[in-house]
């Protein structure tokens, strides 16, 4: 029933968007245009600008994001709608409103400059952030994003930059570090083929780069350089991900469970937010829904079930690839030592 309702809603919004765009196109770019438009077209043009710069962007965002509408995407689509209106509406009718797209582009430039200012502020405060991380002796995987958020801000661009910094940190500067051990640390990958799978992928990318780069270079220099850059970036990401997996096992500290699996996913679960924990066969038989359950199960050559599923009292934020966030109601975890983890949790 939910799927049917979503389909109906999606197609209704899509039909309304099609209606808005087509009606405005027929109004200005059809043989009937001279008959449909009155002598004073200013109010008609204002209505079209509202359609293309407000109504259409809202419909697009509702199609893409459901009910969650944010300012930055709306402004971007609004400017796109105004630029489209400038080309759609004939110059004779649009002349009194030529300043509108220019003003909109000016707003976008201002936002871009503000974002560049955030980047400059992050670079300015980065030495202090690094000193703060070292003084607290915490894993950069958890402490760096938190420090950036506290000292600079929570903008998506800052989260992406923090994620990139973590990738380079683990790829280049973490080789002398050893994985933490102790009764509160639990690895997730040692009994899987995850590291071997990553190494196999790295070898394949290196061989492909060496074999195909010069062949593509003969056809297009730009394409070969782009592919070379992407391959190098992918290798660095895999190397950084391996190190992040190795150096950041699950651990329990100060009434919280810290769970991560490389650079791509991590979450902090306070004990007071745990509603229920299902173990063993009960966890294995539960069907995992990726929309509300975040799986911390190391990839293997076969699909393996979780050892436990932790359900929350309320949805919790999880940090995903490239600094993006998403809320989840549960996590599914597979450990190398599930019995020891259960003993520790039962004692808490």
UniProtKB/TrEMBL annotation:
Q: Where are the transmembrane segments?
A: 43-62, 74-93, 99-124, 156-175, 195-216, 221-240
Keyword match Membrane: yes
Which keywords does this chain's UniProt record carry? Membrane, Transmembrane, Transmembrane helix
Q: What is this protein called?
A: Beta-carotene 15,15'-monooxygenase
């Amino acid at each position: 029933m939910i799927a049917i309702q979503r389909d109906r809603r999606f197609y209704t919004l899509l039909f309304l968007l099609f209606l808005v765009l087509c009606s405005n196109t027929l109004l200005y770019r059809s043989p009937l245009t001279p008959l449909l438009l009155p002598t004073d077209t200013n109010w008609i043009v204002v209505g079209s600008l509202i359609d293309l710069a407000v109504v259409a962007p809202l419909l697009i965002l509702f199609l893409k994001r459901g009910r969650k509408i944010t300012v930055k995407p709306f402004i971007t689509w609004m400017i796109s709608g105004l630029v489209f209106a400038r080309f759609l509406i004939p110059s004779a009718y649009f002349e009194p409103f030529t300043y509108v797209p220019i003003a909109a582009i000016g707003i976008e430039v201002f936002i871009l400059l503000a974002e560049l200012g955030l980047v400059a502020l992050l670079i300015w405060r980065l030495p202090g952030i690094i000193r703060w991380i070292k003084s607290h002796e915490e894993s950069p995987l958890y402490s760096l994003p938190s420090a950036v958020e506290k000292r600079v801000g929570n903008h998506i661009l800052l989260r992406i930059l923090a994620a990139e910094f973590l990738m380079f940190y683990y790829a280049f500067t973490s080789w002398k570090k050893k994985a933490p051990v102790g009764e509160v640390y639990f690895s997730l990958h040692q009994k899987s083929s995850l590291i071997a799978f990553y190494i196999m992928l790295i070898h394949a990318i290196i061989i492909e780069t060496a074999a195909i780069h010069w062949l593509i270079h003969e056809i297009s220099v730009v394409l070969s350089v782009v592919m070379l850059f992407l391959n190098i970036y992918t290798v660095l990401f895999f190397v950084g991900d391996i190190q992040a997996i190795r150096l950041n096992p699950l651990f329990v500290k100060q009434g919280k469970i810290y769970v991560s699996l490389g650079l791509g996913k991590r979450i902090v679960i306070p004990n007071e937010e745990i509603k229920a924990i299902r173990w063993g066969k009960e966890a294995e038989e539960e069907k995992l829904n990726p929309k509300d359950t975040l799986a911390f199960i190391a990839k293997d050559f076969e699909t393996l079930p979780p050892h436990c599923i932790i359900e929350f009292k309320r949805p919790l934020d999880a940090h995903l690839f490239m600094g993006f966030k998403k809320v989840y109601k549960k996590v599914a975890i597979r450990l190398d030592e599930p019995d020891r983890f259960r003993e520790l949790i039962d004692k808490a």
